[in-house]
Amino acid sequence: MIKKIKLFFILSSVLMLSFSCQKEKKQSNKFVTQDIHNFYDMLSQIENATSLNDTLKILNESYLQKASIGLKGYLENENSSNKRDIKQEYLKIIRSFPKYFQSQKPLLSDIENQLDEYDKYFQKIKEVYPDAKFQPTYFSIGFFNTQGQMVYPKTIFVGLEASIRTEKTDYSEFPENYSWLVDETSTIKDLGYLVVHENLHTFQKIEHNENSILDQAITEGAAVFLTAYFCGKGSLVGIAGINQDMI
Question: What is the DSSP code string of 143-205?
């Protein structure tokens, strides 16, 4: 009986230790997905809007005012640098592509289940560069003008509306000037490469006012090279005409 009791306590201790270790395991990077949920919550509310004012109010209160730091950075940059009317930009895509956004909802809502896979790349970076400190990555919905970017100085914004698709994605509403998006074949795995690429820019010394062709070639080329180093040569497919046969 005493042996059974001892065995019980030993097994209990092992299980508790195992659970504790799993609980303490942390991702190397912080991934923020709140904007995805807010966007689709906003869309569901707009279905019941009875006027333009109602629609704009819902857009503002349910999405823009709840924006993550990454989305705020992106919107501020679009407003100040590109003189975008933020509400009108969103109103345009919401009205123009309802089928597209509904077809993408299961895919975008599943992003959270991919984060551990993406984090493995950052663990590889840590192995080479133990002092690496990563910036949070914000998965959000913009208005089809970037797949992802580092918003100066070090905010990582990923525009999911333009950076991922499946065979179920509905592009039937898109005009010809969106062919760049329709012809894109970005997968869940490609999205991981994009996340790493943009994060690598945060380790580069980039001057906001220096944007010559040479500056861009050096910064982008270095990020492409290092992404391939940490993620594999598959990350090169689609860049500058590179296809699978070339690697």
Answer: -SS-SEEEETTTEEEEEGGGT---TT---TT--GGGHHHHT----HHHHHHHHHHHHHGGGS-
